[in-house]
# Entry
Amino acid sequence: MQNWGRTRRFLIYPAVNFLNNRRSNPIAANPVFNSAFGLANHRDSPLYSESEKSNLHTCFHSLRDKVVETGIRSAIRFQHRGFGSDATKIQRNPLFSTLNSEDISYFKGVLGEKNVIQDEERLLTANTDWMHKYRGSSKLLLQPRSTEEVVINVSLMNNIISFDKVSGILVCEAGCILENLITFLDTQGYIMPLDLGAKGSSQIGGNVSTNAGGLRLVRYGSLHGNVLGLEVVLANGDVLDMLGTLRKDNTGYDLKHLFIGSEGSLGIVTKVSILTPPKLSAVNVAFLACKDYFSCQKLLVEAKWKLGEILSAFEFLDNLAMDLVLNHLEGVRNPLPPSLHSFYVLIETTGSDEAYSKEKLEAFLLHAMGAGLITDGALAQDINQASSFWLIREGLPEALMKAGAVYKYDLSLPIENMYNLVEEMRIRLGESATVVAYGHLGDGNLHLNISTPQYEDKILAQIEPYVYEWTSKHRGSISAEHGLGLMKANEIFYSKPTNVVHLMGSIKKALDPKGILNPYKVLPHSLSSSS
Amino acid sequence: MQNWGRTRRFLIYPAVNFLNNRRSNPIAANPVFNSAFGLANHRDSPLYSESEKSNLHTCFHSLRDKVVETGIRSAIRFQHRGFGSDATKIQRNPLFSTLNSEDISYFKGVLGEKNVIQDEERLLTANTDWMHKYRGSSKLLLQPRSTEEVVINVSLMNNIISFDKVSGILVCEAGCILENLITFLDTQGYIMPLDLGAKGSSQIGGNVSTNAGGLRLVRYGSLHGNVLGLEVVLANGDVLDMLGTLRKDNTGYDLKHLFIGSEGSLGIVTKVSILTPPKLSAVNVAFLACKDYFSCQKLLVEAKWKLGEILSAFEFLDNLAMDLVLNHLEGVRNPLPPSLHSFYVLIETTGSDEAYSKEKLEAFLLHAMGAGLITDGALAQDINQASSFWLIREGLPEALMKAGAVYKYDLSLPIENMYNLVEEMRIRLGESATVVAYGHLGDGNLHLNISTPQYEDKILAQIEPYVYEWTSKHRGSISAEHGLGLMKANEIFYSKPTNVVHLMGSIKKALDPKGILNPYKVLPHSLSSSS
# Structure
């Protein structure tokens, strides 16, 4: 209590609806939101994924070569090296036919001249993932304007179809940008149940296809709980109308869940119905220091009970993560005076009553300081302070990219054991690398990042498969929220038993017998090649 | 405001953890929790569902005949007539073999003598559903004690496997009684995210298999959001270990959702991992009167904003429902003085802070009265009052059964249109029936009940298919939370398009090619008979 009294940093601010504005970091928390769509081509001649590479080292060089070849000089320099695997180069499925001028004419007939894109620069953008690590070889980009026209890029399908102010149920097309939906709902007194750093560019169809997690999951749960309905186009062109707008519907198997998180490999999401929570405007953010990981855990448990219904985020980072963001990101400062803090926790509360929320959070912080769970802390005084606290946590991916090469892992682990992995990796790698940890502690989601001056195969060999094996041993997930994509398709067995993966394969075969939807992704190559 | 001051019924009570005790009504809100398991028989000789009937009229008589035949005199009298359909008698699948003494010896070898039940009385209980409307013809009841031994009755598989106090994640066997889990969690400071009238008898495996909704859905969402993992035994005996204990896991298709709500027809749930919310002990209950349905809707919207994070139930009933419960259930009284109220709303709040929750609810009620949204109301003063308020709402199914025959419908509808159906039915049926409406307004779930002195075919013909057609036209669900079972299997097309149902059929065929799991249920007979 005395300590608490002495620190004068716990100032209260009048939270004025900064919920939707507090973050504008362009770095995506999830790399695949926009690339989640594969393609359904009624003539079975896919235009995509000709020779994607999953060996990143190879990819890195060959991509630079290609960039030179194609004469595009503005190529992004690859400072960072992502979460890698030793998977071999993908061979194009020989059953796939190749694009010819007849196909192009056909598509122009369906979509109109201007929605069939062959411009090299636009193709390069569409073929490249957000981290600039992978590059497809598609020669054509199709932009449908309606479900009937679908395939591939749904960015022109960006209409809000309906919103019910009583139930809070929103129905929209898949190409709606998440941030636009957030802005629209704000005028209606509602919010989206998910929020991401990448909201400015990611589309709701991609969010659903990748089962995006993000910053509100601890409060509002996953998309499996919030998505009420989907319209999906299957590989054979069939349109599945599962676009229910009901909170409860027990009529048969709830097939929409197959498409949530299947990364576009079972069908293309074209419309989404989603339950949105009412907007509660009393938001407070505290930035706290803890002396050890055990204190962070205890703080979480206490917060769940004592903050209860107003807790909306519980994020953590360790001191190496803090150093990194302070050293590499401009305009970021530690709100707490320099000291030997081992861990930092960001707590956000959201409620319907400003005075009460403030009072409750303050009482909780006093209690936590009295109990020795936190050693210092600051309570945002205004929206700018709150944004600056969030910037520390959200600036981490960018800071890591600026620091050099980075090996990234997105793991779910039992909260109790989570940080043991970080400590083991530090011992294992010694001076050769900086092991940085942060993540959504409230969800048990660790973002483990290993930063080195430059990429080295021998460092990768020390990390993998060790990290995957460790995660598997502790019944964790090797991909908490980012999905498997191409890179981790073969690593699925670390998190799923063989017979479960085989059942996934059967379902893939039933829905997409020719394997034309987002090929080579999600399922292990052994399964996809056999089809 | 003046009105409010005059009514002295808004008394505050110190809510002393009555959350888990407030209801003990034995009438289940969901009829199929315990009957959700079909059977997987590795020798392909099912013991169940020989000749279940979906024509209730036939069923009603034939069941009485059988009861006489078997000499069991304590048979329950069938006062009520349930939600009916004109579906014809089910023919036993001729591919199924019949039970012989060799089978019985085999099962005794596997499960032990005492877990192979042939006792007539125990078989009668197991063959009869909770409403005593359907009766199976199984000659044998098997009670496995472990996943390896499964199938059919999992009541002996009732162990809690683990509970993580930091994350709130519970792992248990499928046979655990919901109420026992609630009691266990109470000692740990957590609650189950679902609660039902039938908690004293329903098992968690059945809750999951039927995607039980219940009373906490408005606050904590559906089981698709809360169930983190399942262990499932397939028709071929294969055990699928999807028993993750992680909030986030994006490694491949999330297949557990196929089994949530599939009524045991795709596999048998043997273990469940579920996220449990922290227990918040400040519970308040108000019982309110509204002059019309529009006011109920407006009250809901206001409650979502003004009560926000503490709103935990929003139930409604109309004046005919109130009359019915007052006339047929002993010990129930209207907490509001007799007056011409058209609608009643029960609001429950749950929060972490007693004083604040009370204050907030009172302020909201004052506001609602001032705005003319409610015409009268009472705030429970103690746990007994709160229980008596809940008893009105939860006593309705029992009161309906006592009142005579009843045609029951469990519908999801857009909240805006919901009550139009009730009014249309009253016009349609005139004096011949009493149309009673109540339900989970916060979830858009209407329990439409049509009460008559005795069952009549011509009344059924006026109700069906009209109710289903009306629901379909408004994109509602003909089964919000009760499932399709045998009775509504053929009605699935009212809520799902043909190609979606056919895809369900493909999945059924892939997982259970011989159709031995809970046969004749969920999917339309046209699909199941073709397999």
Remarks:
- The longest strand of chain B covers residues 282-290.
- Chain B touches chain A through 94 residues (CB under 8 Å).
